[in-house]
Amino acid sequence: MTSDIVVDADFMVLLNRPPDPAHAAFFRWLSDRAVLALSQKLLGEYMGSGSDLVARLIDRLVSSGRVNRISSDSLKDFKADRHYKYTCNGKDRWHARLVFLSDRKKLLTGDAKLASDVSQFRTIDGVKPQASSFPSPQFYL
């Protein structure tokens, strides 16, 4: 199992100005050791933020082979959530599916509805999906 994690775009932009030492430590871990689970839609949101720091981080992760790319076809083919009552918006359902298809099924996000939907989803492949809005080492390591 890789040490992958999904980072929602609203959380990733905190890279520009980490609000506290915990966020700074998380972004160092992400930059130096982690694997980022990524879809084309989430990549588009990252690039749409206009942040040079985010673009450089993504480039670094890609060039070092530390991206777990989940294809659009895999996201479309995911059917385990067919009867799940999502509370988040439609585009965030794609991000939830990305979490469900990632190895560790962990998400950092500032979106409370997305976090709730991920955390309340059933266990997949023996792993319970989890979401957090705060990057504590106990969560992401």
The CATH superfamily appears as: 5'-nuclease
Number of domains: 1
N→C terminal distance: 13 Å
Major sheet, described briefly?
5 strands, parallel
* Category from helices, strands and their pairing: alpha/beta
Give the number of DSSP strands: 5
CATH topology, which one? Answer: Rossmann fold
Strand percentage: 5-15%
Question: Can you identify the CATH class?
Answer: Alpha Beta
Architecture (CATH level 2) name: 3-Layer(aba) Sandwich
* Count of helical stretches: 8
User: Which strand order do you get reading across the main beta sheet?
Assistant: 3-2-1-4-5
Query: How large, in whole angstroms, is the Cα Rg?
Result: 14 Å
Q: Unreliable stretches, pLDDT < 50, 5 or more residues?
A: none
Kindly describe this structure.
By secondary structure, the protein is of the alpha/beta class. It has a single domain, classed as 3-Layer(aba) Sandwich (Rossmann fold). Helix content is 48%, strand content 12%. A 5-stranded parallel sheet has the order 3-2-1-4-5, with helices on both faces.
Please supply descriptive tags for the structure shown above.
single chain; 141 residues; alpha/beta; Rossmann fold; five-stranded parallel sheet; 8 helices; 5 strands; globular
